[in-house]
Design brief:
The chain is α+β, with helices and mostly antiparallel strands. The protein has one domain (3-99): Rossmann fold, CATH 3.40.50. Helices cover 47% and strands 20% of the residues. It is built from 4 helices and 4 strands. The chain has helices at residues 3-13, 30-47, 64-75, 89-99; strands spanning 18-22, 25-29, 55-60, 79-84. Helix 3 links the parallel strand 3 and strand 4 (79-84). The radius of gyration is 14 Å and the shape is globular.
Amino acid sequence: MNVAAWLEKCGRSYADRPAIARGTSLHLSFGAWAARTRRIAAQLLGGLGCRAGDRVAITMTNCPEFLEAEFAIWHAGLVAVPSISLRSGRMTLLGCSIHQAPPADPKGRY
């Protein structure tokens, strides 16, 4: 079982249970996380034109949304290339070039 299938299974079996927290506050339940992962994966494949096996750079701080992005990338059959968001823009572009991943802003700007 891969991690995308694991999340789908947990989303069905434990839909209302807490999955991701931000400190002591609930960010997403397993059901909400699985649904959000499917929506983001569909956008990556349909709206952004990614294809299975493509590399996608994630430039974010350590936050719950990182898990949403990473699991959506995996769900879509893509390859996640995490990048430290503290890097300068020039270093991030260099890292993306090395890994052949298109740089993308988590808010959808390029």
